């Protein structure tokens, strides 16, 4: 998955509102989380291989190169981001937004691709998100409290 070109905030809100009306399974926070997960995967974790070259807008174009993330890579980045942001509550928070399996991540990504918020390569398939990990195992059982978190405890 790649991040698509940004539009004006007002246009994005209208497009997202239409998307939420068309597919009410997921809350807006679910879409924001998946979008943040893609950026987290690319920028913080440094994952992704170079994607297709985009047409240059001019010789001074400073837009970052497109980096492609697979469905599986995105799912694991979302698991790490959920742990980082929500800790032991990650599974519960995602469930409140309508996300119960990695398949839901794929449905959200497909919706974002449909409205032009993300893009895909020719090799990407919807099935890439199916059964990547079990939510109970990955979000609850595999959660580990780090040294930094222990310091905050009374």
Write the H/E string, N to C.
EHHEEHHHEHH
The number of distinct structural domains comes to 1
Shape: globular
Strand content: 5-15%
Number of strands: 4
Secondary structure tally, helices: 7
Which key features would you list for this structure?
single chain; 154 residues; two-stranded antiparallel sheet; two-stranded antiparallel ribbon; 5% strand
Please, could you describe this protein's structure?
The chain has a two-stranded antiparallel sheet with strand order 1-4. A two-stranded antiparallel sheet has the order 2-3. It has helices at residues 9-22, 28-44, 71-86, 90-96, 102-114, 135-141, 147-151, and strands at 2-3, 49-50, 67-68, 118-119. The protein is mostly helical. The chain has one domain.
